[in-house]
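Order emerges. As here.
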Amino acid sequence: MTGSEAVSGEWVREPAAGVSVPRLRTWERLQDPRSVLVLAHPPVPEGRFRPNLVIRVQPDEGATLTRLATAAIASTMALGEGVHVLSNEAVHVGPLPARKQKFVYHAAGQTVCVDRWLLVAGEEAIEASASYAVPDYVGMEGLFAHMISGLGYAGSRAEGNGVAAGAAESGGIGSVAPQEPRLDELASAAAGEAREDLAAIQAAQPYRCQGPVLTSVALHLLMALADGGRVGRFASAADKAALAELVQAGLAGKNGRLTDAGETFTTPWRTPGAGFILAARHGELSTGIQVWTGDGLAILSAGPSPFQPEQSAIAPGNQQLDLVDAAQLPMLLASWCALAPAWSLPDSGLTIPGPVFEARMASAAEPVPAGVGDGVRRMWEQPWTGWNLMYPGAPASQSWLNAGAAGHYAVQADETGAVTLTPSSSAVVWDGLVRFIHGTLNGAGR
């Protein structure tokens, strides 16, 4: 479903306790004692996630928007390892300043994306959370944005329903963020208003995988066994050592054949599908993830993380494997790329000669170009990791630079070799990542 298809149809306005939003007539209003309004997509087939919008309102407890946003992020991250916070943007809902946050989680076999808007109106905190399965992103993300663009606020609510900012389990905003958060001084100065500090979020969301770590020889042997091959009596010493790795991982038996677990794990290699590569570079480390998809599943073969190389259990040249539902790919790759909220300063973009860009990619010791502003200086002094997505044998798609607390930058080289770095919000990077994977799962790259 495209964004235009998602918003077409007959619209009506749904009022509830001081707030109202437009909805498609085919959508249903559901009852929830914890919320002032719940709107749900028409019923979906069993096993699919039903998109929905939940609006909660509570006293703001004197909190500012920065404190409300910080409380929301903190409570979301406290849910555990199955959640990844992607973005936190300053927006407006009608005339009111707001935050739009995006996070993704995996639970009960579903990978769900949540777009959350937070605002303070009068003496109330309002949270509107739109939830939809990641495979439905292309249609649902635009539909929910359209609904929130028409959100109306009429003042004090008659009833005390709903707890905003994800604080239902913890007792309110004050219990999660009891005081005003630390501010990002540079981002606040650039915006002319307070901006909460987001710098610590990236490191708190490391890529996690429990799959086996294999040498490249063992990986290729596993692929050969999945294709019907076998390790015979006269195998080379290298193949015997590789087989021992697969035996230890439970993927093959000593007889040189796949175990039942190995048969299941290698399913995507035996079914029609597509694959792609995420290539990354951090200083002298060149690494990445190769992905194969098929039968609704995906195999990931990940090299050392460029964001936590000192903690990585993967030696250079080795890969850590994982078998996941294909719908989990955007979340897992966002985690591996350390996609996280950051303030992208509009004055931090620049164009530099190709050799200067390559020198800075190779070493943080490369001096900052003369005459740049504070935004560029902060970006330059952060750790740099470049990454892109590509199909095997094809040119790379959009290239990105992860500049730590300074956020992501789109990387574009012109015909002269000059490189332009354009600040891009993590929500924009997520959009590109999801659409690339969506295209792959629907036939691109084959």
Residues 1-5, 157-170 have pLDDT under 50 and may be disordered. The chain has three domains: 3-181, 213-336, 346-441. DSSP finds 13 helices and 20 strands in the chain.
